[in-house]
Specification:
Chain lengths: ~240, ~575
């Protein structure tokens, strides 16, 4: 009896070991930035949340999406294992600090003014000397600061549209999808897109302790999502 | 000519130009033509003053652009390039000129070089059109030729793009076409800017009699432009260890950068191994082994590691990495180890660096700022640039250094209409109407006619030897990465990720290069299995390294003496040595 029981136990244990169970749950951090990421039930919705959720589901990886302020998300993704941040601009300065799955999004940044603004922006140079609104820790702020522009930063981007309307800033440098979303939400009719001056590859940037095999798997799935039209379908839903 | 006469002369000249405008527009009875031509006239008169063309010839080119652009008027075209002075001028000035003259809205994005690489790699991989054109380094020629995703301009100019190809483009006038031509003889990219990686030094310090005497006493030969790495090392030691300070300020005999960052990658892939002598003879890149250490047989890459006939972990390559690390630690400012390319670029201009073996001429304009301590009060530089010294493995007939050729590149995934409009812009910013003025701003020459112009002769002494280098025969031995590299974006990260391990002393140079060579071979194997449109890798089987090291050519066996006697030459002789 004991021998039979032992045999069954051995078979049972072998069976368990034959099927590796991933106990890793990825923590995926993003900021609230409609329409890319909107707080809601569970992990929220939005273009980037939908893309990343599908990506991890297709790769068969457990995950949890948490919305936090961007700077906190950056700190946590650098220090915590199995943690990724999205949608992060992939640039040379950050390249060595993360493992990248890219691009989860290709976004564009534009200069917005009031319709009655006297400023005409044909090239990026035309914004020099003007007060440009953007938000802390953003790639937009980094880029414009590196060119020596007068940048007025706020903790979040959403209030900048009102600052523009109240003439507290001359120009709002904003993501084109976010700008459209906020324009519609606040029923703004006096805003003009002057110049879309930059395109950005935005990635899922993972802590360097995330194994390269998992990063490669995510990258393969991402490519499939482009080729089968999934990414385009999701973006179109939020345009 | 007295002042009043000169004013009248210029007024008559402008009046004749306006008459030409009227005549050309009257010919086609067009009001909008008039507006476009007046815009062209304004730009030709005010901005494009320096040109190898006459004003009439410039206006005829502008007329051609206006006519060719008509079907595309009102379109928005988006292009991208890296951030150097030439491209900033294009983005801020030339894009505006093009828009006013042709009515095509041109957005010229400026970003980091690594971002340009990532974006073109993304568009290649996904067939998703992000930009209508790229100014992409011709280091990608091997990649572009093999992927089938880049438009062959040779075919485009006589086919789909015939009606938008400038009759006066004069391709033969471009000095860098061999870099952007594939092994099939087709042009894949059109050069927009070129700069070389040369040796930079403080000529005023090298001319000091006290330094000359002391150097000769210590090393047994003259202080001058180093011809080999032995001399470079001696001079570095001389200034850092023996001279130490000038006018109470600490000075250094070497400058470089060592931060783990993508820019550490091109520090090496921009021909550091060939400067040491790791590859084979043969211009432009070495046949069969190039400056990346990749061996190619019948257009197929066959391996990077010595065991497969490559040279990436060869004794010459290990020597190159060893010297880089040693000089960075011993002779460069301590903060250099934690700097990247952009951060390190400003340092020679601050006045504490005696020489720099790896210096891009793209920094020439920045270093001629009259406020800098490296400039004389007469507006001439205290510094010079000269052909780079070579390592002990280098042999005559090899490529020596790197030349960057940022070139217009068009993807098959870009819609044809957008491609044609973008091609107009590419030709506008490289046309003879514009190119000399652009070259004077950014100092990245692409046309022989500009280099040989009277204007260039007049200004040459302001630029520390740049014009002299480009007019010399030495120029031929400075080339971009060539067609041996089958997937530049897919392989380039291996450089900075592995060399950083040696710089940070996590691995020895030999172990770091062994690891890099093994990883590169793995990726070449993946490419072989995945396949490419043409000339994919066909990997050699591994053999004992001695098989390859005992054969002539690369990979070369370790030299018994890696530090022969230092050799220097006076500046003028250092250029003549290439004749």
């Amino acid at each position: 009896m004991m021998k039979t029981y032992g045999m069954y136990l051995a078979v049972f244990i072998q069976g368990i070991l034959a099927f590796p169970v991933s106990t890793t749950t990825f923590t995926l951090l993003t900021e609230e930035l409609p329409p890319y990421s909107i707080r809601g039930n569970d992990s929220g919705t939005g273009a980037s949340i939908d893309i990343v959720s599908q990506l991890f589901t297709r790769a068969n990886f457990d995950y949890e999406i948490i919305i936090v302020p961007w700077k906190r998300a950056m700190r946590m993704s650098l220090s915590d294992e199995n943690t990724c941040i999205f949608p992060m601009q992939r640039n040379q300065e950050r390249e060595a600090s993360y493992h990248w799955v890219s691009p989860v999004l290709i976004t564009q940044t534009g200069f917005y003014t009031r319709k009655d603004s006297p400023h005409k922006l044909v090239t990026i140079d035309d914004a020099k000397g003007l007060i440009i609104g953007t938000y802390n820790g953003s790639a937009v702020a980094e880029y414009l600061t590196s060119w020596g522009y007068k940048v007025y930063m706020t903790p979040r981007d959403a209030p900048n549209i009102q600052r523009l309307m109240k003439k507290r800033i001359d120009v709002w440098a904003a993501d084109t999808l976010s700008a459209k979303y906020l324009e519609n939400k606040h029923k703004i009719t006096n805003m003009k897109e002057q110049l879309v001056y930059f395109s950005t590859l935005r990635a899922l940037a993972c802590n360097t302790k995330v194994p390269e095999t998992k990063v490669n798997k995510l990258q393969q799935e991402l490519k499939l999502m482009y080729t089968d039209g999934t990414i385009e379908k999701i973006i179109t839903k939020y345009k | 000519m007295i002042y009043e006469d000169k004013r009248q002369y210029l007024a008559r000249k402008r009046s004749r130009l306006s008459e030409l405008t009227l005549f050309l527009c009257a010919s086609i009875l067009s009001v909008s033509c008039m507006a476009d031509m007046l815009a062209a006239e304004k730009w030709v008169n005010n901005e494009f003053k320096e040109s190898t063309l006459t004003k009439n010839q410039q206006m005829k080119e502008m007329q051609w652009f206006i006519n060719a652009a008509k079907p595309f008027k009102g379109m928005t075209i988006r292009v991208v390039s890296e951030r150097i002075d030439t491209h900033v001028y294009e983005a801020k000035v030339l894009a505006k000129a093009f828009q006013e003259i042709t009515g095509i809205k041109l957005v010229h994005e400026i970003t980091g070089e690594d971002d340009v690489v990532k974006k073109i790699a993304t568009q290649t991989e996904l067939d998703y059109s992000i930009y209508d054109a790229y100014i992409n380094d011709s280091d990608f020629i091997g990649t572009h030729y093999r992927t089938g995703k880049v438009v062959a301009l040779t075919d485009f100019m006589v086919g789909e793009g015939k009606d938008v190809t400038l009759p006066s483009l004069d391709l033969e006038d471009f000095i860098g076409l061999s870099f952007t031509t594939g092994p099939d003889g087709k042009l894949y990219q059109l050069p927009d800017q070129q700069f070389a990686n040369l040796y930079w030094y403080r000529a005023d310090w090298f001319d000091r009699s006290d330094f000359k005497v002391n150097f000769k006493k210590l090393y047994g030969y003259e202080l001058g432009v180093p011809q080999n790495w032995s001399a470079y090392e001696d001079i570095a030691e001389f200034f850092t260890i023996h001279v130490k300070t000038i006018d109470g300020k600490k000075i250094y005999g070497h400058m470089d950068y060592g931060k783990k960052d993508p820019s550490l990658g091109w520090r090496f892939s921009d021909a550091w191994l060939s400067m040491a002598g790791a590859g084979d003879k043969g211009i432009p890149n070495g046949i069969p082994v190039d400056e990346w250490g990749i061996r190619v047989e019948n257009c197929h890459p066959v391996g990077a590691s010595v065991s497969r006939g490559g040279a990436l972990n060869s004794p010459a390559a290990v020597y190159a990495i060893t010297k880089f690390t040693e000089w960075l630690n011993k002779f460069a400012p301590p903060e250099a180890k934690n700097m990247n390319f952009s951060q390190a670029g400003a340092l020679p201009g601050q006045g504490a660096i005696a020489q720099q073996i790896f210096w891009y001429t793209a920094f020439t304009a920045a270093l001629t700022d009259p406020k800098l301590p490296v400039m004389n009060s007469d507006g001439l530089p205290k510094w010079r640039m000269a052909p780079s010294p070579r390592g002990p493995y280098w042999e005559k007939g090899m490529k020596l250094g790197y030349q960057d050729t940022g070139s217009w590149t068009f993807m098959t995934s870009t819609p044809l209409r957008n491609r044609k409009a973008a091609w107009l812009y590419a030709q506008f910013v490289t046309s003879k109407t514009v190119s000399l003025q652009k070259t004077l701003i950014g100092l990245t020459p692409i046309r022989n006619s500009d280099l040989m112009s009277d204007k260039m002769t007049k200004v040459a002494d302001k630029y520390g030897g740049l014009i002299e280098f480009y007019r010399s025969k030495a120029r031929v031995a400075w080339t971009p990465t060539g067609s041996n590299v089958p997937d530049y974006p897919g392989l380039s990260d291996l450089w900075w990720k592995n060399v950083a391990l040696a710089v940070n002393e996590q691995l020895s140079p030999q172990d770091a290069m062994n690891q890099m060579a093994a990883e590169m071979d793995e990726r070449l194997i993946e490419l072989e299995q995945k396949g490419q449109e043409r000339c994919a890798p066909k990997m050699n089987p591994k053999k004992d390294e001695s098989y390859w090291l005992n054969r002539p050519g690369a990979p070369k066996a370790k030299l018994a003496n890696e530090k022969p006697q230092g050799i220097t030459l006076p500046y003028e002789s250092s250029l003549e040595a290439w004749d």
